[in-house]
Write a structure and sequence with these properties.
mainly alpha, Recoverin, domain 1, 63% helix, two-stranded antiparallel ribbon
């Protein structure tokens, strides 16, 4: 294979890599916006502390497969969003409803860029796009 052919292949591969990253980012954004819409039950364009609390309780109950009122390591690892990883504040290997609720409140405060005690779709999307990079 000649030099120019190799260069063409390299640029083609780099282009595909860039396209796949852009595609992944678009998919992530669509998923984030869909999640926002699911949390915003009154459809006013904002997530309130009450809405995030209801969402947290729903997620907690869905992950609590053995219905014992706590999430163990196995159940927390089933959380693909990884939001509950930091919730085990006392490091006992279990997440209680109180720890989960506390963690969701912390996330809500981090998302609320303008500190108006509610989260817009833009604030939510920007926050999760930033979090998903790490």
């Amino acid at each position: 294979m000649k030099g120019p052919d190799k260069i063409g292949i390299i640029f083609c591969c780099l282009g595909l890599f860039g396209f796949s990253n852009a595609f992944a980012a678009q998919v992530d954004t669509q998923m984030i916006k869909a999640e926002f819409k699911a949390i915003d039950v009154n459809k006013d364009g904002y997530i309130t502390p009450e809405e995030i609390q209801a969402h947290q309780e729903k997620n907690f109950n869905a992950l609590d497969k053995d219905k014992n009122g706590t999430l163990d390591v196995k159940e927390v690892s089933a959380d693909k969003t990884r939001v509950l990883e930091k919730a085990d504040k006392n490091k006992d290997g279990k997440v209680t409803p109180q720890e989960s609720s506390s963690q969701f409140k912390e996330y809500l405060q981090e998302m609320d860029a303008n500190k108006d005690n509610k989260v817009s779709e833009d604030e939510y999307t920007d926050y999760w796009k930033w979090r998903l990079k790490f």
